[in-house]
Write a structure and sequence with these properties.
Chain lengths: ~130, ~375
């Protein structure tokens, strides 16, 4: 199940054998707001982030936007496909367009994220 | 992800309802609600303009008629030469020219188009500068000219290789117009002021039309399968590829026409030893720079990698240098080139084509190469 941040990132906690590892991306709402992406800057594997730190940058034709770490942890994988196909984030924001995977430092931080209903409520008045 | 900015009370163009019906995403720009893109998105919109034709709403721009109190249009041209370094007196009826309002210190107050409509001059100025320009014109020219903002008009641009064929479907005589011709043309019964010009590097037309007739005209143009509506996002990526300046980014009061590589806007007749040398604000500095060069220059920049280099990024002569030698003023993605592109100001000794420089982006030094402008060759019908 996906969890969300008010900053429009999503997080999915992977099951075994990767327990404690979360996949992270930006939401369908976010990709629509940004428009066509032309560049994605991803962190190096092994980088550690605190919750809320700038972990990646997504760039549309018009502007660059920071992507924050939804929870603290260490980067264990990044989506290398995005270097040649940044548009994957637009096409499949919660699928093939994932950004990076974190070994979560404190799974308790995931509890504090929004569920789908709460995130939907947050974006409902901004849609368009 | 960082949040988008909030929308406050915004003015609407006469085409607002059409944009909404066409599925535009509206954003604030220069105090107006403007379409940044439609459903297709910026990449497809940009490529469509280069391949066929795009329709832009640029009604937020200022349209100002300058009428002679004497009844002689040449008197308006003469007066305008006191504010701009162009050859306004040499502007024939039915012709349009790009020029600049200069400041006493030699900077640029605005860039604009001027056309000779026979009995008056018509100015098209930047949206964010129109109130300033009106005040400036009134303060400087009211004794000789009537300054009349044309607030009841929309301005639309039809741009791209199919633009001529599309517009000729409504008025066949536009085929006879050349680049920078400007004349009255009747479109669907409405008398419009049409110029063969634009802000994309493509052939095309800009059409000033009375507000009540604007929507029907746009709908008629959009019925042609070659035409799609294009938002401000693609307008910016198209003009950047065409190497055209954006006022407030690449031009402002701190940039001189020579620094901006716009020497060509100062014709021989207004230069030292010309018949009407000087006589515009900042002439002393600008004419001196024309003779001896300026300390910095606007150049094109091609980032080496895939990462866009945006406005505000400092530029360095080498990867370890601590003192910047310039700054990026416009940067983004050249959709037709499928590569990042930028423009900026660099010290003149670093301005030669193919000079290797470094831009600082998010704390990293990225290689950029000084490149000739435009990035994409213009296709005007001269």
């Amino acid at each position: 199940m996906l969890k969300f941040t008010p900053d429009h990132e999503w997080l999915r906690l992977d099951g075994a054998p990767d327990a404690g590892v979360a996949t992270i991306g930006i939401t369908p709402f976010a990709q629509k707001q940004l428009g066509d992406l032309v560049f994605v800057e991803l962190p190096a594997v092994g980088t550690r982030f605190d919750k809320g730190a700038v972990a990646a940058t997504v760039e549309s034709v018009k502007a660059a936007s920071d992507v924050y770490a939804p929870v603290g942890g260490e980067v264990v994988a990044v989506n290398d496909k995005l270097s040649s196909e940044p548009g994957l984030v637009n096409a499949e924001p919660t699928g093939g367009g994932w950004l990076f995977r974190l070994k979560v430092a404190d799974t308790g931080e995931i509890e504090g994220l929004l569920d789908d209903k709460a995130y939907e409520a947050l974006t409902a008045d901004k849609a368009g | 992800m960082s949040a988008p900015q909030a929308t406050t009370e915004l003015r609407r163009t006469p085409l607002h309802d059409l944009h909404v019906r066409l599925g535009a995403r509206m954003v604030p720009f220069a105090g107006y609600a403007m379409p940044v893109q439609y459903a297709d998105g910026i990449i497809k919109e940009h490529l469509h303009v280069r391949a066929a034709a795009g329709l832009f709403d640029v009604s937020h721009m200022g349209q100002i008629a300058l009428r002679p109190r004497s009844g002689v249009v040449g008197d308006v041209a003469r007066a305008l030469e006191g504010l701009a370094p162009g050859d306004m007196r040499g502007l024939a009826t039915g012709r349009q020219r790009y020029t600049l309002f200069t400041a006493d210190a030699g900077g640029v107050l605005d860039d604009l188009m001027v056309s000779n409509q026979g009995d008056h001059l018509m100015l098209v100025v930047n949206a964010a500068r129109k109130e300033f320009d009106e005040t400036h014109l009134r303060a400087q020219l009211s004794d000789r000219c009537i300054v009349e903002p044309l607030v009841d008009r929309a301005l639309i641009a039809l741009q791209g290789p199919a633009a001529e064929a599309v517009l000729a479907g409504l008025a066949p005589d536009v085929r006879a117009m050349r680049f920078m011709d400007a004349r009255a043309v009747t479109l669907l019964g409405a008398v419009c002021l049409v110029s063969r010009s634009g802000y994309t590097g493509e052939d095309g037309f800009e059409i000033s039309v009375l507000a009540p007739a604007a929507e029907a005209l746009c709908e008629a143009l959009l019925r042609d399968p070659a035409v799609k509506p294009i938002g401000l996002g693609a307008r910016d990526s198209l003009r950047l590829e065409a190497g055209l300046c954006l006022y407030g980014a690449d031009l402002d009061e701190s940039t001189s026409p020579v620094e901006a590589a716009l020497e060509w806007t100062v014709p021989p007749v207004r230069r030292a030893s010309g018949a009407r040398a000087g006589g515009f604000p900042g002439a002393e500095k600008i004419l001196s720079e024309l003779k001896s060069g300026a300390a910095r220059r606007r150049v094109g920049l091609r980032p080496d990698g895939r990462a866009p280099v945006r406005a505000g990024a400092p530029l360095f002569a080498d990867a370890g240098a601590t003192a910047p030698i310039g700054m990026v003023t416009s940067g983004g993605f050249g959709v037709s080139l499928n590569a990042p592109i930028a423009m900026g100001y660099v010290r003149t000794d670093a301005a030669a084509t193919d000079t290797q420089l470094f831009a600082e982006v998010r704390g990293k030094r990225l290689g950029v190469t000084v490149s000739d402008l435009p990035f994409v060759p213009a296709r005007y019908r001269r």
